[in-house]
Amino acid sequence: MSNHWRKKTISLVLGLFLLSGMIRANGLNLNGLGSKANSMGGAFIGLADDFSLVYWNPAGAGFLTRPLFGALATDIMPTNRYQAMLGSDTSIEAKTKFSHYLGFLLAYYQPVSDQLVFGLGFYTPAEIGTTWKGEDFKSLTGDVAYDWKSKIGLMTLSPLVAWKISDRLSLGATFNLNYGEMKWSQWPGQLEISPGTYADPGQYEEGLHGFGWGLTVGLLAKPADWLDIGLTVKTPTTIKFRSKINMYSLSVIGYPTRSEVRREVKWPWFIGGGISVRPVERLTLNADAGWSDWSELKSLTTTYLDPTWADLMEANGAAIRPLDWKDTWQLRFGAEYRLSQHFALRAGYYHDPAPGPDQTMNVLLPTFDVNGITAGFGYDWNGLSVNWGFEYLKGKNRQVTSEEIGTMAVPFQAMPGTYKMYQVIPTISVSYRF
């Protein structure tokens, strides 16, 4: 590889390992939890009438009259493709390996009076990653098949309290204790250890973990028997990650092979509203709109505690990497039709725009304008409820050109090429009202 392309690779790949593995569909969040909710396009803020309400709108618990327990399992199966010509001698045709990213939700709610309900939820608001075939990137990595994989997971424990102010109005809130984990491996590119002198550090490996907290506040109103209106606000959550980063081949040039690091990643404000309408006895129609404050993620900073690593990463432009994300609005629509007292059919659609611009698009941090098609069914009998849902997410193809990247103040942090994505997500849940 020429010095020209080597320098480009240094800039783009060192930026990647600070950012990789954070994507479910867009941003740092799942698009929702709950078989009933997800099969209705995730339009559930204005309904919030099953055990997944701890995620959607905690005020829904205020209308519970019986204890409720529920369990959910979901399997996220993403497929990404990447095609690029990065020079006359560097072409890439890559596809991610078939992978499973499992998510869950457990929740229990206990009414203690006619107005007051306590609850507890334990769930995964983020659980996804990418696993590429190292052979597909050999033309970029000196004909060596390094591992290219990433994963981010977030587990949240949420104590809940809800107060039914009146027969038609409820207020609820949760305290969210979050545990985050970030893992990935890849080739970090040739490092410039002195002016004009480069070294190959070999395989890069990172595993970070940390804690953070936030709040969710919800309001649910029932102004008429056929109409529900909901509002949910999630406060920002900053996870303070820490652990060690390894690049074992640095020992060949006399550098330490690992360094402890610190990194903070911020989940933004979310404000969403929803409406649920029952125009006829068996039909329910839902619509939600949600705003995420992704523009807070302007850049990502990593602090290397080893002074040698700190100097090396600063010299190679890896300590601070821009994101330049933008705020987004999600639109969600869903419907449920009850064929009988026991059996219901559901379907939905949602649109989720990409928060990231072309200038920060790369194989380990791909964001897409997503269109989601959902469907499912539910069966209820004597307090027992079994629900199944299915989502198909299709990302709009993205074409990133070298000219777009070259105009940026920090060039080549992104990878030019064509990006494609789709995801298949089945989910199943069981709950019981005692």
Could you characterize the architecture of this molecule?
Strand 5 and strand 6 (169-186) form a beta hairpin. The chain is 9% helix and 56% strand. The protein has helices at 3-19, 35-39, 53-56, 307-315, 402-406; strands at 68-87, 90-95, 101-111, 116-132, 148-166, 169-186, 191-194, 197-199, 204-224, 227-234, 237-247, 258-267, 270-280, 283-292, 299-304, 320-322, 328-338, 343-352, 370-381, 384-395, 398-400, 417-433. It has 434 residues and is mainly beta. The chain has one domain (3-433): Porin (Beta Barrel), CATH 2.40.160.60. The longest helix is centred in the first third of the chain and has 17 residues, at 3-19.
Rg, rounded, reads 23 Å
Number of helices: 5
How does CATH name the architecture? Beta Barrel
- Helix share of residues? under 10%
The secondary structure category is: mainly beta
Q: What is the number of E strands?
A: 22
pLDDT averaged over residues: 86
CATH superfamily (homologous) name: Outer membrane protein transport protein (OMPP1/FadL/TodX)
Percent strand: over 45%
Q: What are the segments in which pLDDT stays under 50 over at least 5 consecutive residues? A: 1-25
CATH topology: Porin
Pick out its properties.
434 residues, mainly beta, Porin, two-stranded antiparallel ribbon, 5 helices, 9% helix
